[in-house]
Amino acid sequence: YLREQGIGCDIHYPQPTHLQPIYRHLGYREGDFPVSERLAREVLSLPLYPELTRAEVEQVARAVRSFVEKTS
Predict the structure, then answer these.
(1) Is this model's pTM higher than 0.70 or not?
(2) Distance CA 39, CA 6 (A)
(3) Rounded to an integer, what distance in angstroms lies between the CA atom of residue 54 and that of residue 58?
């Protein structure tokens, strides 16, 4: 929905930390940290950077509000 509104967004951490290749040697498996795994699937990153104008912030806020209103 947000992309259709011209707003860049993505899943913040597409893979939970304990399942990333760098930590494979620790032996963690899927299911070891279910909250972390759920959050990795659900947490959304919105545009956030110093050059973001007030108008752009308001556009993001309106789009998020609109999505919530349509899906609630």
Answers:
(1) no
(2) 24
(3) 6
Q: Please tell me the distance from the alpha carbon of residue 50 to that of residue 19, in angstroms, as a whole number.
A: 31
What was the pLDDT predicted at 62?
95
Chain segment 19-53, per-residue pLDDT in tens: 999 999 999 999 999 999 999 888 889 998 999 99
User: What are the extents of the domains in the chain?
Assistant: 3-71
Burial-class residue 60 by CB neighbours within 10 Å (0-12, 13-18, 19+).
Answer: buried
- Strand extents, DSSP E, the chain: 10-11, 44-45
Longest dimension (CA), the chain: 47
Q: 3-71: which CATH architecture?
A: Alpha-Beta Complex (3.90)
DSSP 44: E
